[in-house]
């Protein structure tokens, strides 16, 4: 019997690029548990990732085939942050790294260092430097042999584990003492609906890796082209299951590319339909169409309004999948870790501001289309009513998370509909 596909309609302010998301089942690999000290971090496969030629790096050809590219790391002898920055600049002189990428990378290094050093771990500096060296290795390899994402990209777990790399990079930025998950039992219900006969962004995976590791590792992100082309984002994207699309917000940035982008999105939509028809998939879509930003007048963060047509398109895809589908409202709060720019930018390669902070993730009970639209007079009204019901649930969850994390109320912010917990504690 096929397990049903699930849809989680997401809102809230995201730490990084905010895509719509799908999750597909894969072989189970249990992720790391909790924050690790440096020796355990490395023993578990974190920290300095394999750089021996036998390991190599996974790159994609134009046909999507994987190949190994071997070669020693230029960073094996780096022992300090100063040496690291000098080595980055040296790669520019050697012609191995574009100057603009190097500038953004150096900016990222200082931001990441300042954030990680706030977490209180006595080994924070070594962990920070190790993670930045791992990222620089990945960036250099991609500069030499650019990775091309196919419409449906499966997370690269070997010979280099990009998923674990991403987890280890974000983990020291999360203040788990001030982080919460809402309605952990609903996540467990979702997992049970999916896992019958079949086997980020990182904040979601870190929040669920102890209580719901299958969901943590098997989400498929519907990723916009910016996270697939930005040199500093690509290594993290390579470690996630992705459906690759062009964002509506950037569709008209370059008029000569509009038709190509539309054709590419059509291919990705077909891939999504195939995944849904296969069952055992969890869909997470951000119906606002991008990352949330603060109100320009008040500076307050809040979930951006949902696009009712995007919600309805997702619902109809589920209805036509041939297996029962379920839709859940989900909220994620983590903008303090890596907020987006204040304005939507046209060019790739934004500056990154990073901090150490608590995060929140919550899901509410399934919302059924027939239940909330029974009194609607026509299809248009029903579409708006359903979208509004999902959005209101997301906002309610977001406000509870905000109260717990930013007003220091912790788990007492829970209410009868939203129960907060710390499943990693």
Number of strands: 12
Which structural class should the secondary elements be placed in?
alpha/beta
| Average predicted local confidence, pLDDT | 78
Please compute the radius of gyration using only Cα atoms.
21 Å
The first-to-last residue Cα distance is 36 Å
CATH level 4 superfamily of the largest domain? Glycerol-3-phosphate (1)-acyltransferase
User: Regarding CATH, which class of the largest domain?
Assistant: Alpha Beta
The share of residues in helices is: 25-40%
Q: Which sequence of strands runs across the widest sheet? A: 5-8-7-2-9-1-10-11-6-12
The CATH level-2 architecture of the largest domain is identified as: 3-Layer(aba) Sandwich
Report the biggest beta sheet as strand number plus sense, adding barrel if it closes. 10 strands, mixed
Tertiary shape: globular
Give your account of this protein's structure.
With 425 residues, this protein is of the alpha/beta class. The chain has two domains: 6-35 and 173-421, Glycerol-3-phosphate (1)-acyltransferase, CATH 3.40.1130; 49-152 and 163-168, Non-ribosomal Peptide Synthetase Peptidyl Carrier Protein, Chain A (Orthogonal Bundle), CATH 1.10.1200.50. A hairpin with a 5-residue loop joins strand 3 and strand 4 (66-68). The protein is globular and about 65 Å long. Helix 2 runs antiparallel to helix 3 (99-116) and helix 3 (99-116) runs antiparallel to helix 4. The longest helix has 28 residues, at 379-406. Mean pLDDT is 78; it is low at 12-72 and 195-200. It has helices at 38-43, 81-93, 99-116, 124-144, 162-170, 184-194, 203-208, 213-218, 225-229, 234-237, 258-277, 308-319, 369-372, 379-406, and strands at residues 6-11, 20-23, 58-60, 66-68, 152-153, 180-182, 219-224, 241-245, 282-285, 326-333, 360-363, 420-421. The chain is built from 14 helices and twelve strands.
């Amino acid at each position: 019997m096929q397990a049903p596909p699930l849809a989680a309609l997401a809102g809230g302010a995201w730490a990084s690029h905010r895509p719509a998301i799908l999750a597909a089942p894969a072989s189970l690999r249990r992720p790391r548990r909790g924050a690790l000290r440096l020796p355990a971090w490395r023993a578990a496969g974190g920290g300095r990732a394999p750089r021996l030629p036998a390991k190599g790096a996974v790159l994609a050809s134009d046909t999507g085939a994987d190949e190994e590219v071997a070669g020693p790391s230029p960073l094996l002898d780096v022992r300090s942050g100063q040496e690291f920055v000098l080595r980055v600049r040296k790669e520019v002189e050697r012609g191995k790294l574009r100057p603009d990428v190097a500038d953004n990378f150096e900016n990222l290094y200082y931001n990441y260092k300042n954030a990680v050093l706030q977490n209180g771990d006595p080994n924070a500096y070594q962990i920070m430097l190790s993670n930045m060296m791992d990222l620089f290795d990945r960036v250099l390899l991609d500069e030499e042999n650019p990775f091309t994402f196919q419409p449906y990209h499966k997370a690269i777990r070997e010979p280099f584990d990009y998923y674990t790399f991403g987890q280890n990079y974000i983990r020291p930025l999360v203040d788990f003492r001030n982080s919460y998950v809402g309605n952990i039992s609903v996540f467990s219900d979702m997992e049970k609906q999916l896992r019958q006969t079949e086997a980020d962004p990182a904040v979601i995976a870190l929040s669920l890796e102890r209580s719901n590791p299958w969901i943590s590792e098997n989400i498929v992100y519907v990723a916009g082209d910016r996270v697939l082309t930005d040199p500093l984002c690509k290594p993290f994207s390579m470690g996630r299951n992705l459906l690759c699309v062009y964002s509506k917000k950037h569709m008209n940035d370059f008029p000569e590319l509009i038709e190509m982008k539309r054709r590419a999105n059509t291919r990705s939509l077909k891939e999504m339909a195939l995944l849904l028809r296969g069952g055992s998939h969890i869909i997470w879509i951000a119906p606002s169409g991008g990352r949330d930003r603060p109100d320009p007048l008040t500076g307050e963060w809040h979930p951006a309004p949902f696009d009712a047509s995007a919600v309805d398109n997702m619902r109809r895809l589920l209805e036509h999948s041939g297996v029962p589908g379920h839709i859940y409202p989900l909220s994620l709060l983590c903008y303090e870790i890596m907020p987006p720019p204040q304005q939507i930018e046209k060019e790739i390669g934004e500056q990154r501001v990073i901090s150490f902070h608590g995060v929140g993730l919550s899901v509410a009970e399934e919302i059924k289309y027939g239940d909330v639209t029974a009194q609607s007079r026509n299809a248009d009204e029903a579409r708006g009513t359903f979208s509004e019901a999902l959005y209101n649930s997301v906002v309610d969850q977001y406000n509870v998370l905000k109260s717990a994390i930013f007003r220091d109320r912790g788990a007492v912010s829970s209410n009868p509909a939203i129960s907060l917990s710390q499943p990693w504690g």
